[in-house]
Amino acid sequence: MSGKTDVAREMKKLRLIFGGHCIVCGGKKQLEFAHLEPTDVVGKGRGSKHRMLDIKRHMDKYELLCKNCHKLKDNGTPLLRFEKSVAKEQERAEYNLTARPRRDIVEDPTE
Predict the structure, then answer these.
(1) Is the pTM of this model over 0.90?
(2) How far apart are CA 15 and CA 67, in angstroms?
(3) Between these two residues, 31 and 102, which has the higher pLDDT value?
(4) Does residue 32 fall inside a structural domain?
(5) Phi, psi dihedrals of residue 14, rounded to the nearest 5°
(6) Which of 37, 62, 69, 95 has the smallest CB count inside 10 Å?
């Protein structure tokens, strides 16, 4: 991984793995990774290689929030989860970043 474009591309992949939307309001713009538990990276490090590697290493310690919900969370406001996030969270827990996505799992088009 050499430059900013590589990091941006990897961050985009991570946002998709995390569901591609805010787990609170469902918004899809200005998405940020919020800590559930402290890791080696603190403060604003959006887009940095160090932050991206930390997210990959500690996927269970992050959640995807829009900028507004992240700010509310950081200010101590209790937030409810968006319904669709539960399935994505389970899917993410089973996903292995080092493996290719399984091609034998096909979503039912009738659902």
Answers:
(1) no
(2) 13
(3) 31
(4) yes
(5) -65, -40
(6) 37
